């Protein structure tokens, strides 16, 4: 049957059964929402069948700030903001966990009880970088050809050096000479990858900032013997 929208006054068609149930007053959902919004603004909220007395003043459990809530939310919300809720959750969680010491860099870090009690992976490291350094340091592998060449030269020149040294959790150094010079024997293929180049630059920057002299030797220069002049010039 034909009906006239009570909001926009446009004629539209509606099912008779829908009109009998009290519908068919508006031509669309948008018109219904606009009419309801206008009615709520014109009439006081006390006349609404869902009126529960207005907002209730509450105190934030975390910061103590006063804020207002709808009566239906009083039992479920105790914080004035999401930041207060997150801060309070952290305060509750901290005493339950433990502060551990990283086995690589010695830095203290926090882990939850669930992480500490896992059977497969115990929290021994503060970061993935420290985990990778420890894995490389302890893995059973033979020195590469270019590392053997550099080591042989260091022995011939009677330099005091250490092999596979972890420097403050920054990187695993191939050779540390005189506790000052960090020598890397970088293979051309692996260390030419963009992701690896980015890591190498970051490590070099951090080592230099900590007072070390960084020497990165390309694999091709080591095989050709050019590295000897480079090392003699820098170390001497």
Model description:
With 236 residues, the protein is α+β, with helices and mostly antiparallel strands. It has four domains: 42 residues, no CATH class; 39 residues, no CATH class; 38 residues, no CATH class; 94 residues, 3-Layer(aba) Sandwich (Endonuclease, Chain A), CATH 3.40.960.10. The chain contains nine helices and ten strands. It has a four-stranded mixed beta sheet, sandwiched between helices. A two-stranded antiparallel ribbon has the order 1-2. A two-stranded antiparallel sheet has the order 3-4. A hairpin with a 6-residue loop joins strand 3 and strand 4. The longest helix is centred in the C-terminal third of the chain and has 16 residues. The N and C termini lie far apart (101 Å). The mean pLDDT is 84.
What is the CATH class name of the largest domain?
Alpha Beta
How many helix segments? 9
Envelope shape: elongated
Biggest sheet, in brief? 4 strands, mixed
Low-confidence stretches: none
CATH topology of the largest domain: Endonuclease, Chain A
Quick one: how many beta strands? 10
